[in-house]
Amino acid sequence: MAAKSDGAVAAAGPGPEGAAGGARGSAGGRGEAAAVAGSPGVVGAGGPGPRYELRDCCWVLCALLVFFSDGATDLWLAASYYLQGQRTYFGLTLLFVLLPSLVVQLLSFRWFVYDYSEPAGAPGPAASTKDSGTGGAAISTKDSAVAFRTKEGSPELSPRPAPSSASAYRRRCCRLCVWLLQTLVHLLQLGQVWRYLRALYLGLQSRWRGERLRRHFYWRMLFESADVSMLRLLETFLRSAPQLVLQLSLLVHRGHEPDLLPALSTSASLVSLAWTLASYQKVLRDSRDDKRPLSYKGAVAQVLWHLFTIAARSLAFALFASVYKLYFGIFIVAHWCVMTFWVIQGETDFCMSKWEEIIYNMVVGIIYIFCWFNVKEGRSRRRMTLYYCIVLLENAALTGFWYSSRNFSTDFHSLILVCVVASSFALGIFFMCVYYCLLHPNGPMLGPHTPGCICPEAPGTCGPPADAVTSPPRSLPRTTGAERDGAAVGGERAGTPTPPVFQVRPGLPPTPVTRPLRTEGPVIRIDLPRKKYPAWDAHFIDRRLRKTILALEYSSPATPRLQYRSVGTSQELLEYETTV
């Protein structure tokens, strides 16, 4: 059976090996998925995946605290400028708050509209299981007027009675209330807050529910966390970064009369930038089963690394801009153009279309004005060293030009600021070395290096190419040893060894759990090559594909696995058969 990412129905009969294959659809080749189920007696085997813990909840609450502190101090400072009659500073401060917030809210609301909208004449996506005619269960999704319900812990799905007029009326009222609530939330510029709270709710639900629904809520929590991390990354570099440079420039311009409120605003913006970068990297690694997760110690080290490097960079900008305003604008534009060209020539693979990729590269060029941001697969040591060498030279040149305009003999305050720039950058590099040498998920940089993906059985090679095969987020069980030894699963030929890419990461669960081997089970096939890290998987950024996978995953009594198209296996596409 196959399901296309636009919600249409597709089904496939059993293949020559007794398993159905996935099919390509007509959604522009961007997100077709297919599901295959094994024997009806097989349920999702495997021990429990990672649980939503108290520290995960605390991390979200701290992210909310950072968000509110950044926005509140900026608005408070804008009001202070207005009351003091400094209309220019008031306008610039308010502009850097409202314009990025409006852009992010529009994007967030657009995502909500797509996720919550339904085709005409369909009350919602429904999922069901039906006999495939070969003793197995085929999974299908379609937008129809018939819905189904799943009892927690039950391996089968039972049809729901046809809705009455009263229930249909209540359903319409509920949908109207949701639309009104979301509209109000985004008009109040609280779209990120809603998504943070929703991710927190879904995480707690995955902790409190039974195994059948736990994995479903945990998967949805990962999707919501990915959305809010991308939104926050865009907002912080459109709002907090220019706000930081502006307020630092004003503090330097005032000289020996610093004000507490601008200092609070710059501190909040700086913490927001560092926190958002570390949080983005953590959620990205948690979402990919081919990468080891980032620990909270590593995330804190990343926060300190970005905190001090961005502080040195922003202070150098502020010092230079306080004297050479026109040349500072020219420098920023030139640096952004060079960095954007550098990113484009690296041929990133983040978005689903060419124009979206260009816009993404332009945003990354803005990020590169302030800090390092990895966008290309492979060892980033040389590229990161080159970047920080360029940043060091630029910081030294900007600070030197500013210091040359001061009075060397009497201005001791200027010498202190130069030392602050140098020491802050040195501290940032120190914490970067601490992260890579001690806290990197793959192990120490100078010691024994652990492969990036979770393949303890194959230290020499790390499975197939990154775009070949994957499994759902870590809440779902992995492929067992029988599948890796060549059992016919998901349409693959028997006797063909499959490299081990589905094992649970070490350390989760903390104690060994006895699990029955699962040689058969549902497989969701995605007719796309897998995106290479550090890009998100396609089912995280393509919302049509996400909706289809969630419907398939929720309708399946057993735990499904995700399988992307292997570029090296051209015959795999011939196994797909589509029926609409």
Automatic annotation (TrEMBL):
Family: Belongs to the XK family.
TM regions (residue ranges): 58-83, 89-109, 326-346, 358-375, 384-403, 415-438
GO cellular component: plasma membrane
Signal peptide: none
UniProt protein name: XK-related protein
Ranges of biased composition (kind: Gly residues): 15-26
Subcellular localization, as worded in the UniProt entry: Cell membrane; Membrane
Organism this protein belongs to: Sciurus carolinensis (Eastern gray squirrel)
Membrane topology: Multi-pass membrane protein
Region Disordered, residue ranges: 1-26, 466-501
Any single GO BP term: engulfment of apoptotic cell
The entry's keywords: Cell membrane, Membrane, Transmembrane, Transmembrane helix
Keyword Transmembrane: yes
